[in-house]
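Shipment paperwork, digital attachment
Item: protein structure file
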Amino acid sequence: MERTHIAFFGRRNAGKSSLVNRFTSQELSIVSDIAGTTTDPVRKTMELLPLGPVVIIDTPGIDDEGALGNQRIERSIRVLDETDIAILVVDGSIGIRDDEKQLIDVFKKRKIPYLVVINKSDLGTADMPENAIVVSALKGEGIEELKEKVAVLISQRKSRPLVSDLVEEGDLIILVVPIDKSAPKDRLILPQQMVIRDLLGKGAIPIVVKDTELDIALKKVGKVRMVITDSQAFGKVSKIVPPEIPLTSFSILMARFKGILDQSIGGANMLDKLTDGAKILISEGCTHHRQCEDIGTVKLPNWIREYTGKDFEFSFTSGLEFPKDLSSYDLIIHCGACMLGETEVASRYRKADEQGVPMTNYGIAIGKMKGILDRVIRFG
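Attachment content:
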């Protein structure tokens, strides 16, 4: 399930951290009377009743000062790229200031749902914006109302199906999960878990096999509605699965789920237009220990060289690291982005589009290079 990213913004000493602690009923953030105690965004992944799975983010003050202060402000603004719901915390004893009004304008421009919260109501309120929620983090007043308003915003978020809309109750779905040196020890990766859960919720019947047992499974299980594979195994799996059985990958389903499928398909076509020396950025949304068979830094570059017959300059990023200036790149290839929220993924693709850089994802790029792209994006 997609986690809603809820970020708290505001000036120093507005009581953001105190409010975060009240909101979550946990001591997530350090609280102090000293202005600027929060120096870096603080993230906490949690289940928060009645809101469900969320990521809570406490940010540095937007009025920080000096060279370091400017860096902290930049990090706060960077959080907007992953924010699904913004909460602007205003010191009620002071009232709303121009920089806070400017931040509201940014929320509106980016179409980020937001709430204005007037904190320190125990000290009185001044210049209160319309529809603001009045709270006291110190006394715990107004917290339940705030949670109710956030719950409404969460319920209004549109959620795309992952795979359940492509199948029917009782359908047999084969999931191909290769177990090689790059596979995590003793567990399935998140997209595989998400697909299994979505299929179970639909009442479909997922059957999980390694690529080495796929042909046996196809012979034994009867009528198969769809085969979903790790994209790295496209070459082998596409030769085993009969053409009348729909075939796709976890990565491609994630692109569809995140709302960037069409843009990714367009980006993959750039592989046919690259010239020698072109610059390609390969970006992953998570960080992990890279191994000798790593897909991002080893397999993809090799496949691209083999497919095009040309040599390129590759750059690599991971986690929250993603360049602001993309203009020097000729193509960006992103992972399935299972660890990134929809807002963060959309932000990265939007930046690429605005700077005129084609962008695709691992599964779609691999499907293109294996000559089966049309097949693996058909879904039925």
